Amino acid sequence: MGQGEVDRDGDIGCCGYCLMFLSFILVVIFFPFSLCIAIKVVQEYERAVIFRLGRVVGGAKGPGLFFLWPCIDEMQKVDLRVLSYDVPPQEILTRDSVTVAVDAVVYYRIFDPIMSVCNVNDAFRSTQLLASTTLRNVLGTKAMSEVLSERESISQEMQHILDVSTDPWGMKVERVEIKDVRLPIQLQRAMAAEAEAAREARAKVVAAEGEQKASRALKEAADVIAESPAALQLRYLQTLNSISAEKNSTIIFPLPINMLSSIMKK
């Protein structure tokens, strides 16, 4: 018999059959009240593992009605639905010596009812404890930056480790999700100051690039105006139009550039 296997042949021997006959006598004597004890109902999402004198009878039963022999049969119901478990926040020391509080959620279900009953005392409780331990072990090998940026890969790594470890228990870990990563207050302030400094540096670089482009554009405009005196006169008229639109009480009329040139020659 290999590891994780159980004896399911249901052979109870000669004494077992004698006890079954006595159980049949009890059912007949106390009929129909004995049916309340002997008949069990298993729901669609459940399976029944029946023990007869300590031995598993066949495979997992269900759903539907089942008859149990009084005093010699014992039934355990196993829920096959996917369950979720919130891993409590774990204080974890990362690889770069930063203490963080991390919590997660684990989704798991039973795929083999007999293994979950016979191979482990409490499959659900054991899986929950293993999830907490695995969370600490996996995050302890990661740096803080990896914990913050690689949640999906960490979740997949945890899911694989838990799935392999709980397979002999008849348990299947469907999914693991990192819910929250809480950093110390001092570290949050330091990271916020670093991010603010980086944003200010980027803003200054953008402003400097804008000033450089504006200076080049002004230089090109000045070169064009210098080549054509009429263009400068049109610029004067445009400036005069802008000033008059603002309803100013005092307006200074610029002299034509050709007049200034003749005066300067004289």
From TrEMBL:
InterPro entries per UniProt: Band-7_stomatin-like (IPR043202), Band_7 (IPR001107), Band_7/SPFH_dom_sf (IPR036013), Stomatin_HflK_fam (IPR001972)
SUPFAM superfamilies in UniProt: Band 7/SPFH domain (SSF117892)
Coiled-coil ranges from the UniProt annotation: none
Keyword annotations of the record: Membrane, Transmembrane, Transmembrane helix
Transmembrane segments: 20-42
Keyword Membrane: yes
Annotated Band domain residues: 37-195
Family: Belongs to the band 7/mec-2 family.
Full protein name: Band 7 domain-containing protein
Gene source species: Magallana gigas (Pacific oyster)
Source taxonomy: Eukaryota, Metazoa, Spiralia, Lophotrochozoa, Mollusca
